[in-house]
Amino acid sequence: MKPQHRLLRQNHTLLSVLASVGLLLFLSNVDARAESTSSFPPPSRLQTGDLIWPKKPNAIVPYNSRPGQANDSDAEAWVKERDRHLDELKAKPNVTDEEKARYLALRNMTYLEFVSLYLDDVSPGKAAPYAAGVASTGHVGIIQVIDGVPTVVEAMDGIGVRRMSYSDWTHNRPGELVWVGRLKDVSAEKRAAVAATAASYIGRPYHFWNFNLSDSTGFYCSKLAWFSILTGAGFAPDDDPNPNRPLWYSPKKLMSSKHIEMIVNPGSYGLPVRR
Asked: Tens digits of per-residue pLDDT, 253-267?
């Protein structure tokens, strides 16, 4: 074999090896990217009116619901806001029965008791289930599919009610898992009305201490969902149409509604054990 032919064959072999290595690296990167996003259901799985609860495994979701904001200052902020709300109640010349009950419940409530109430749907005065296996969730959004592209409508602290593409929403929640629920025996038209109701309040402020579930001047996440279901589907998800509540309607309470079927359920990956 002539030297130049031998050189050409060697170069061809080298290029084939490099191409194979490149292909393997490309496929491994694709697999890695797929694995990194595998915790989120594909967009094709989502329908307008679905409800979506995000949560990082083995972590308490901060009550302000912003991704990545859970830290020790969350408890301090909650106590300050609680005390401010109690001062507002004391200053009112006339208080309702619900407000009296709220004052009595809140004045001695600790942040950890609040976590059990809001994140784990535990009634005040009952033991807090701080043990492994508790599936605790602290935020919920409403899916609205626009021109085939799913978006998430949600009430966020510091932002208010907003709409974000599902792609961006998942990108902002690395390492989190989600549940997805769908209203049972509710037509697609009514589920669309639920999402449209939520979207009609885009721009409204976030108000965690607004306990009247029918007051549309401000929302927290699960209040927006409760109000949107009542308005769009015609029933309260907890079968209690009375909007005047002494305390919050929690995301966990919404998840436990008999009117909701969980279509994506990553299982129980609850809170860390507390001693």
From this structure: 898 899 999 999 987
Contact of 266 with 175, CB cutoff 8 Å: no
Q: Are residues 23 and 132 in the same domain?
A: no
Mark whether 67 and 17 lie in a shared domain: no
Helices (H), 93-206: 97-106, 111-120, 166-171, 188-199
Query: Which domain covers residue 76, as residue numbers?
Result: 43-264
CB 226 within 8 A of CB 95: no
188 and 246, same domain (yes or no): yes
47 and 11 part of one domain? no
Q: Please answer whether residues 62 and 138 qualify as being in contact, where contact means their C-beta atoms are separated by less than 8 angstroms.
A: yes
pLDDT digits (tens, 9 = 90+) for 101-130: 999 999 998 888 887 777 665 554 443 333
Backbone angles phi, psi at 73, to 5 degrees: -70, -15
Q: What is the pTM of this model?
A: 0.74
Shared domain for 73 and 160, answered yes or no, is yes
Q: Is residue 251 classed as helix, strand or coil in its secondary structure?
A: helix
Whether the CB-CB separation of 207 and 163 falls below 8 Å is answered with: no
Q: Note the Cα 61 to chain centre separation in Å.
A: 9
